[in-house]
Amino acid sequence: MRKVLEHCPNCGGELEITRLNCKSCETVILARYEPCPFCKLSPESTRFVQAFVKTRGNLKEMERDLGQSYWTLRAKLNEVIQELGFQVEPVHEEEELAALRRQILDQLERGEIDPAEAAEQLNQLKRQAR
């Protein structure tokens, strides 16, 4: 699917949407519209958001699907948050690690992962924290 152009291909200036056409009855609407915030995302960020939604925001599952580390995915999520115009709150690494440990133990409790996989993920967290 092609995205709406955001910048003029001639001068690089910002574009605005001013005309909409109905495919059925050919009604034409002339007005000024801004593209939605998601339309402004880069193709890479759009793919990331699609994967994020597909995995219900589970970065650990994205890690398995995409073969990227948790920290790489977390950094990309922060980039997307900023690209959408939101402020990224600084997170203390210790709090982040505690949250990840809780997530792993919750997955174990729900039976989503076995004890061996939980132990491996917890060990991996230890190694990443160093």
Mean of residue pLDDT values: 86
Share of helix, binned = 40-55%
Overall, the morphology is elongated
- Global Rg: 21 Å
The amount of beta strand, in percent, is 5-15%
Which ranges are low-confidence, i.e. pLDDT below 50, for 5 or more consecutive residues? Answer: none
Q: How many strands, what sense, and barrel or not for the largest sheet?
A: 2 strands, antiparallel
Entry summary:
Helix content is 51%, strand content 8%. The chain has 130 residues and is mainly alpha-helical.
Structure notes:
By secondary structure, the chain is mainly alpha-helical. It has a domain at 42-129. It is built from five helices and two strands; from the N terminus they run ββααααα. The chain has helices at residues 43-54, 59-66, 70-83, 93-109, 115-129; strands spanning 17-21, 28-33. It has a two-stranded antiparallel ribbon. Strand 1 and strand 2 form a beta hairpin. The radius of gyration is 21 Å and the shape is elongated.
